[in-house]
Amino acid sequence: MTERRPDPVKKMLLPDGGLYSGHVRRDPLRPDELVPDGVGKIKWPNGDKYRGRFTNGVPNGQGIKQIVATGITIQGNFTQYMAQDKEGKMTRENATGAVEYSYEGGLLYDRQDGWGVETTADGTRYEGYFMKGKRGPSGKWILRNGNVYEGEFLNGLMHGRGKLTNDVNKTSYDGQ
Known about the structure:
Blueprint: E1 7-13, E2 19-26, E3 34-43, E4 49-55, E5 58-67, E6 72-79, E7 82-93, E8 99-108, E9 111-120, E10 125-131, E11 134-142, E12 148-154, E13 157-165, E14 172-175
Antiparallel strand pairs: 1-2, 2-3, 3-4, 4-5, 5-6, 6-7, 7-8, 8-9, 9-10, 10-11, 11-12, 12-13, 13-14
């Protein structure tokens, strides 16, 4: 079996309006058309961008995706344009470009999923599990005032069994 090789770098307008620059190859289903394949980048009319690997016209493999409307940048492994990685990274910047939020850990469908660590600009930090982009079912939340909650979460909120420790007077509450 021969290895398929991408054609040279090309610039082309895609059917979804995106401007692509990168390696291409002939579409196996439509031999008269070229599709992104290999390393390249796309910029869409709304300003969103993707830079990384493509397979048969679709972002697949390592890449970086920027979503302008939310200020979110996702770095990791992509499958069919969606981040799916056990060790991905996500950041959100405000209008001035300052990082408001960062995350390192599991990603599934462009959301936090699995074990991860999120940190906000004010110093708040969460270490634990995420499901569908929300904290839970368990983790440790370290607030900027030094208070720490360790326990269960539901839909991103403290819920169920847990322990809340006050950093100032070292008191704690353990319960539900």
